Amino acid sequence: xxxxxxxxxxxxxxxxxxxxxxxxxxxxxxxxxxxxxxxxxxxxxxxxxxxxxxxxxxxxxxxxxxxxxxxxxxxxxxxxxxxxxxxxxxxxxxxxxxxxxxxxxxxxxxxxxxxxxxxxxxxxxxxxxxxxxxxxxxxxxxxxxxxxxxxxxxxxxxxxxxxxxxxxxxxxxxxxxxxxxxxxxxxxxxxxxxxxxxxxxxxxxxxxxxxxxxxxxxxxxxxxxxxxxxxxxxxxxxxxxxxxxxxxxxxxxxxxxxxxxxxxxxxxxxxxxxxxxxxxxxxxxxxxxxxxxxxxxxxxxxxxxxxxxxxxxxxxxxxxxxxxxxxxxxxxxxxxxxxxxxxxxxxxxxxxxxxxxxxxxxxxxxxxxxxxxxxxxxxxxxxxxxxxxxxxxxxxxxxxxxxxxxxxxxxxxxxxxxxxxxxxxxxxxxxxxxxxxxxxxxxxxxxxxxxxxxxxxxxxxxxxxxxxxxxxxxxxxxxxxxxxxxxxxxxxxxxxxxxxxxxxxxxxxxxxxxxxxxxxxxxxxxxxxxxxxxxxxxxxxxxxxxxxxxxxxxxxxxxxxxxxxxxxxxxxxxxxxxxxxxxxxxxxxxxxxxxxxxxxxxxxxxxxxxxxxxxxxxxxxxxxxxxxxxxxxxxxxxxxxxxxxxxxxxxxxxxxxxxxxxxxxxxxxxxxxxxxxxxxxxxxxxxxxxxxxxxxxxxxxxxxxxxxxxxxxxxxxxxxxxxxxxx
Length: 727
Hints:
With 727 residues, this protein is of the alpha/beta class. Helix 20 links the parallel strand 18 (527-532) and strand 19. The radius of gyration is 32 Å and the shape is elongated.
C-alpha cells in the first residue's frame, strides 16, 4: 500500500479512463506487483465527492481488473492530508527544510483519518498468511494501526525519503506518534545506513528503546531496522536504447542540438532537488569558461509537482526567472544556452535524453535515493557519459564512481562540471562499467526480494523469541505446582521485575498493591519469599522491613532473615572507594544528569537522566578506565539498566541465594529477574526449579515474560483459592 495507486483515474463526464501514475514509487514497483500476486491499496487520484456513489463503483471495478484496491478521498481530505501534513509538514522536515514545515492540528487530524481509512481497506482485504508491505511517509501511522487490528500479521514498511537526524526530527510535535506508528511493523527499511542510524537514535531518545545490530525490543515485540538501497528495472532501461522509437528520438535530438555538448538536468520541480543551484552553477560556468559558449546546452526538464503548494509555486517562478536571466546574459540569435521543459516526458523521450547527454547533473540538496541517477548510468551502452551526483542523495552511497559534490558549494559544482566535460573517454567507460555492474546485480527485483527475505527472517527471529515465552500451558503447570507444594521458595528481584524503573532510585517506592501481594504470599503456610536486589540494605529495610520476607542487598553482599539483623555474607573491603570515587565524580561533572549512589560496599554511577548519546560515549570511557584501575583488585564492574556499579568481587545474587536453597528440600522454587545480574541467580537454581526472565533476549532462565505486569499477575494467580488471602 502507498499513497497513490500505480494507475490514476481521469474523469470526462460520466466516462472514466485509466492511465499510469507519475512518480518514482508507482513506476519503480509497478513491474514487481504485476509479477508477484500482489494487490495494491492506494488513492486512485480522483475526488470521491465529484465521483459520487456510482462513480466510485465504476472506478472500483476498473481498478479491480488491475489488482488495485482504491481508497477514496474527497478533495478536502486530500488538501489537508496530502498537500497539508504530508507535503507541508513531513516532506520539508524530513529533507531538512524544517523552517518550511508547518504545524497544523487540522492537517494532523486529516493524516490520522486517512491512515485509518487505509487501515480499514487493508483489514477488509487481508487474508491469513498475506504479507503487508507499507510504503513511504504518507502512511507512517499505518503499521501500528494494522498491528492493533491484525496482531499476527507480517508487516513491512519502507521509507522512500530520508529520515532526519534526531535534532531535526524532535521538532515534530507528533514525534512519539510517528515512531510508535512505524514500530508496528516487523521490518522497517531505509535506503542508507545514515537513515537507519537517525531512526534508531530517535527511537532511543524519544521512546527509550535500545537497539542491538538494528534489532529493537519494544517490550513485547522485536522490530528489525535495516538498509535496502532501492534499485531500478535495470534491464528495461538498458534494453530501451535499442528500441527503434528511442533510437529515432535520440537521432532527432542530436540533430536539434547540432552537435553541441549536452548537460541534462531531469527532476520533479521540488525545492529539495536543487534546480536553482544548478542554474546558477551553469551561469557561473559560462562566465568562467567563455570557450564553451555556443558549444553547450543545458536541458532542464522539470516535471510539475504539488502545484497547489505555495512553496512549489514560488519555486516555479524562481526557475522561470533564472532561465530567462541566463538566456539573456549568454544567449545569441542562434544559440539558447538553456532548454527548459516544464512537463512530463514519455519513456522513449526520457531514455533518448539520457542517451545523448554527455553529462547528467543530479545535485539534490537532500534526496532519499534518486533513481534518475541510476537510470542515466543504465542507458550508457558505450560507457560514455559522466554523472555529477550530490553527496546528499542516497544514491551517492552506491555510485561512488560518479563525480560526488556538495550541492551547496557552487565553486565545487562549477569545477565538477568542467571535470565532467573534460574527462577522458577511457575514464568515463571505466567508471560507468563499475556502476553498471553494481546496478545490474542489485536491481529492483533483487531489492524487493531482499526486503521480503529479511522480513521472513525477522518473523523467524520473533518466533524463536516467542517460543521461550511463558505459554498458557506452562503458566497453568507452574501455578498448579505452586499450589500443591508443601514448601515453597520465591526468589524475587525488585527493580524492573516487580516495579518499573524510575529516573532516580529513591522514587521507585513499592506501591500498596505490591506490598499487599507480598504480604499475602508470605502469609501462605510453607512459603518463604526473598527479595534479592542491588539496592542498599537501608532502603530495602525501610520498604520491606514490615513484611515477613528475607532480604538480600547490594547484589548479595548483605543478607537479612525475616525480623533478623543484617549480616555480611563474607569478608569485604571498602578502602578502594577512596580511589574510585574521584573517578566517578569526574564523570558526573562531565555528564550532566548523571549522579553517584554510594552503598556500603559499592559505588554506582547512574546515567538514566543523562543525554543518551553523551552517556553512551562516557560509559565506554569510564568502563575502560575502571577495568584498568580494578585489574589487580578484588572488584567487579557490573552494568545494569543505565547504571555502572563497582563492587567487591565474588558476591552475587546466586551465591547469596544459596543460603536459602541449601535449606531444602523445597517442593517449589521460583526465581525471577530482569537483567544480567540475575543470571547468577538463574544459574544457581537447582534442577526442576522455575526461572523467569522479564523481557526478551538471551538468558539462562527457562522462560520469559514480556513485562513486570505479567510477573505480578502470575504471583497473584499462584495464591491458593482456599486459605489464600484476598489481594
